[in-house]
Structures are given as C-alpha cells and as structure tokens.
Amino acid sequence: MHTSRKLSFALLAIGAVVAIVAPAAVTRAEPSEAAATRAEIQKTFGFLPGFMKQMPDALLPGFWQEMSGLEMNPNTALPGKVKELISLGVASQIPCEYCIYAHTQFGKLNQASDAEVGEAIAVAALTRHWSTFINGLAPDEQKFRAEIAQLVGHVKKLVAGTAPAPKPMMVTDARTALEDVRQNFGFVPEFIKRFPPEALPGAWNMMKSVELNPNTKLSGKHKSLIGLAVAAQIPCRFCVIADTEFAKLEGASDREIAEALAMASMTRAGSTALNGLQVDKPGFRRDIDRLVAGARKHAAMAAREKAMDGR
Fold it and tell me: How confident is the model at residue 311 (pLDDT cuts 50, 70, 90)?
C-alpha cells in the first residue's frame, strides 16, 4: 500500500511537469500557417508590427486574410475612407484607444478630413445616445417598425415634392422642437414624444444638425452606414432597424450594408484581441505611424512612376 502511494505521487509529479513543459515545447515550433502569414505581413509592410507578433497563431491567418481582403482592398463597394470612418465610429464608443488611434490615422491616410473624422464620431455618439433612450423605453417592436416605415414614407414624399418642404425654424423649447419634428417627419414618433421636454430641444438639434443635415462633409448614406455599424455591435435592435431603412433610403446597396457590418465586426474582434493581449500602447502607436509612413512613401513612389510613364 505504501509503495503504491509512492508510485501514484510519482506519476502525478511527472504529469505536472509534462503539463508545464509541453506547452512550451509546442510554442517553439510555430505552426506553418501562422509563420507563412507573418512572412506575408513582413513582405507587405516591410516589417512585422508588434501586435501581430502577439496575436495567437490560430487567430492570425484568418484575421489577416479578412483585413487584407476587406479593409485594405481598394476594390470593395465602399471606399477606403468610409471603411475607416465606420471602424472609427465603432471604436469610439466601445471605446478602444488602440482602434481609435489606428482608424483615425488610416482614415487620414485615405484622405479623410478632420471634419469628416469629427462627423463620424458625432454619428456614433448620437447612435449611442438614442440607443440608450429607446432601449430603456422598451417600445413594442412592431409599432416601432411601423413608425420608421411612416417616417421613411414621408421623407420620400419630401424628396418627390409631394409633401410641403420644412420651413426653417428656431428650436428653443419642447413646443418648437415637436413642431419641427412634425414638419420634418410628418408626425412625432413615440420615442420623441416620450423624451423629457427639458432635454428635447438639444437632442433634436443634435439629430437635425448632424444626421439630417444635407450639408455635412459626409453623405447621408455614409452617415447612416456608420450609424448602422455602431448599432449592430452595441447591439441595438431598434437602431439596426432604423439605420438599415435610412441607409437604403439614401441609396445604400445590400453589398454596402454588408461591408459596413463586416467592418464593425472586424473592428470589434481586433479591439478584443488588442485589449485582451494588453498590447503595449506606445509601441502600438509607433507601429501604426510606421505603417502609415510606409504607405505614404509607397503612394508617392507610385505617383512618380506613373508621371514618368506618362511622359
């Protein structure tokens, strides 16, 4: 009996050592797919960013394939600038410091102006604002859908000129806010009726000045796609319903809607990995700056070569 116990303890000890040593042995032999992916990234960027070194071997190949296939692809339905602004809107309200910095820099690399960056963030903020209030009210979904359909129908009449155009109005209190809502939407939706009257003028003025404003730097379609992307990963079912209809009203195709949602999901996945791995933030910023500088240099060289070929 005594000998049997000694043997059992010895086997347990050996098992414990194997459990500690075996994973280390596995990590020394990097899976070939992850190694090939890192080599491809090195070739593409001229260096291997630190956060991609840290990314788990099982995750990296697919993540890179999706990133290069959608975000970095110039031949998608959505232009590069809009894809980056969608990701910035999503990142801003997660919030994810890594992704905010990266997508701001990538957006500017794709010619996004400071005003467009600000508008993307504003749309994300307002989506979160109304999501919070509407979800808290817990309205009947079918009634909400019916009101969105009624709102969209009225906007179509405004565009066709079969409904009277809204007149400029100074919104200073709840009464003038409700009157302005009625002339823009044709009626007052339930979620606006139930908004606190003291806060309504400011809330309506924000919505009207950002989301309903035809004179912003971003188009109505792209603002709606940013709102939809943000709503999809809050997640807010009511805002998804509304922003899908608004995006279609503004001319968004099914492909554009799918790409906006895919950018949102990819941003959320990247944010989770970066934050969970506790990637060094100063090092991450240096990597992003290096990526952007390399892309600018490559674009300048390509432009010079094109100019020389045109001589």
Answer: low
Q: How confident is the model at residue 264 (pLDDT cuts 50, 70, 90)?
A: very high
Q: Which CATH number fits domain 74-279: 3.40.50.2300, 1.20.1070.10, 1.20.1290.10, 1.10.287.1770?
A: 1.20.1290.10
Give the DSSP letter string of the chain: -HHHHHHHHHHHHHHHHHHHHHHHHHHHS--HHHHHHHHHHHHHHSS--HHHHHS-TTTHHHHHHHIIIIIT-TTSSS-HHHHHHHHHHHHHTTT-HHHHHHHHHHHHHTT--HHHHHHHHHHHHHHHHHHHHHHHH---HHHHHHHHHHHHHHHHHHHHT-SPPPPP----SHHHHHHHHHHHHSS--HHHHTS-TTTHHHHHHHHHHHTS-TTSSS-HHHHHHHHHHHHHHTT-HHHHHHHHHHHHHTT--HHHHHHHHHHHHHHHHHHHHHHHTT--HHHHHHHHHHHHHHHHHHHHHHHHHHHHHT-
Domain ranges for the chain, please list them: 74-279
